[in-house]
Amino acid sequence: MSDLSPWAPFAITQGHLQGQRERRSTIQADGEGAFFLQPSKKPDSQDRGHQLGCHPLGRLRRFVNQVFMPVDFPSSVTESYLTFIQYTACQLLCSHMSKIIATQAMLLALGVGGPETIPMAAVTAWVLKDGIGHLLAIVVGTLINRRFDSDPKRFRFQAMMMAKSADLLCILTLQWPGCFFALSALGGALGRLSMNTGQASRPKVLDTFARAGNLGDIMRCNNAQTTAAELLGTGLGACWGLLLGTEVRLLISGSALLSLASLICCYQATTVVKMSSLNRQRAELVLMAAVKQICKLQQQGADLDPRQQSVIIPSPEEIRHREVFVLLYSSPGDIEVNPAVTTSYQLLTLPDPTSKYLLGCSRGRLAIWYHVEAAAHEVLQGFFHSQLLLVLAEASGKDDGTNGDFVKASALAADLAQQWWASVYGALLSQGWQTDMVFLDARNKRVRIDKKTPV
Fold first, then answer.
1. What is d(CA 258, CA 252) in angstroms, rounded to the nearest whole number?
2. pLDDT tens for each residue of 146-200
3. What SS3 state is found at 291?
4. Where are the domains of the chain?
5. Backbone angles phi, psi at 454, to 5 degrees
6. Which DSSP letter does residue 308 get?
7. Is the peptide bond before 152 cis (omega within 30 degrees of 0)?
8. What element of type H or E holds 23?
9. How far is Cα 240 from Cα 98, in angstroms, rounded to an integer?
10. Pairing of strands 346-347, 357-362
11. Which of 135, 88, 347, 339 is nearest to 230 (CA)?
12. CA 96, CA 370: separation in Å to the nearest integer?
């Protein structure tokens, strides 16, 4: 074979990912014009690299990556994924060690005080279930329902707090053996509720790290990481329990240290989660920035065409640092979404069968009702309108508990909402916010606007 000049500089290389063996072939041709891939001889440096890759440690590293990391890592996940799993692994390790200590205390409370206590704790921690816990988890999960999807970061952290509270209750059974059933039942209920809450919020959290539609692969890795961390935590927890002995104060102190460490790791892991969906908190943080910018231009008397203006709104990465998920979120605006129509409200928008939302006020509080057929972008538009109206009404400087400020600002708010919504919606899309699914209202409380009241 002889090289042909048009193809001679070209070669095909296979194995571009970290840890893969590199194979290289050049494009060559024979005298009859047929082209072939001819494996090229590796330089000595590449041969040495291949030998290192074939070393048992190199093969072990590749195996560990295959088990615990998604395919095509790190290009298939976001940059914060590695930080997330590192803190999560530490969280699970400390949490399971604390759980083993709590189980040991329960067994001691039952009178199991022999040398077999520690291994029994390690085994029964996996199988100890409580019927009350299952029932409570079902009831609470039904009440929370879609909020697992809208606010998974909050429920992920709350799940860890419930798990550590359950461990403390289990340890207290050793202090008050007479209350064993009550304390263990409550601890089991909190533990089961924590498990269900964590499992329900996990898919939404992990989905934020997927770059290549590989949520299933990331969840597979998460299961492997969780199992490994819990197995290691079981062994270390058994050893830690041997050191602590049967003294209640030592068990509580040891569990408290592990619980604190697991909560810190859980917080650090949760802070790197970047949500692009819009719930009440994120929507207010995002849209309020646009509303203030629009109101500032309005106050300056700027004669601008909104279609030619760019609205600056925060990105999901910026909101990640400002989002509150440990403490309760306090909304800056007093807006009721889909309130019960059992109170008299003064309407601020004209009722229209084609309208997808309706604004009203009562006793100085703003309310918005969404139509049963309102799409996600129309829900966002209505929320943007309500934010505009709220800011314009507050700009008057009055807070007398009446509806006068809302009534005066309603016409201007409606005009601005209609003029600027296209620009705001475009800014949401450009920043990567999810607009095809929003979590701003309860669908079962939406309304229908009829021309006549049914008799």
1. 10
2. 678 899 999 999 999 999 999 999 899 888 887 777 788 788 888 888 988 899 8
3. helix
4. 11-68, 81-271, 278-445
5. -60, 140
6. G
7. no
8. strand 23-29
9. 9
10. antiparallel
11. 88
12. 45
81-271: in CATH 1.20.1250: yes
Give percent of the chain with pLDDT exceeding 70. Answer: 80
> Which pair of tokens denotes residue 167?
């461990």
Cross-strand bridge partners of residue 368: 337, 359
Q: Which residue has the tokens 């509270």?
A: 165
* CA dist., res. 15 & res. 24, Å (int): 9
Task: Tell me the Cα Rg of the chain.
Answer: 30
C-beta atoms surrounding 131 within 10 Å: 11
The dihedral formed by the CA atoms of 185, 190, 193 and 195, expressed in degrees to the nearest 10: -110
Query: Do the Cβ atoms of 203 and 269 come closer than 8 Å?
Result: no
Instruction: Find the range with the poorest average confidence among 32-41, 228-237, 343-352.
Output: 32-41
- pLDDT tens track for 407-433: 889 999 999 999 999 999 999 999 999
CB atoms within 10 A of CB 308: 7
| Contacts by 223-226, CB closer than 8 A, 24 or more apart | 224/67, 224/68, 225/68, 225/85, 225/88, 225/89, 225/92, 226/92
Q: What pLDDT digit, counting tens, does each position of 99-121 carry?
A: 999 988 887 876 665 555 555 55
Contacts of 289 (CB under 8 A, 6+ apart): 312, 313, 314
- Only one residue has tokens 């802070």, namely 271
Q: How many CB atoms lie within 10 A of CB 39?
A: 10
Residue 28: beta bridge partners? Answer: 36
Would the pTM count as exceeding 0.85? Answer: no
- Angle (CA) 330 332 336, round 5°: 85
| Token representation of residue 42 | 């590796």
Tell me the C-alpha distance between 221 and 372, whole Å.
40
CA angle 167, 124, 182 (to 5 degrees): 45
Residues in the chain: 455
Q: Give the three-class secondary structure for 370.
A: strand
Q: Are the CB atoms for 64 and 89 separated by under 8 Å?
A: no
Distance CA 91, CA 97 (A): 10
- SS3 state at 360: strand
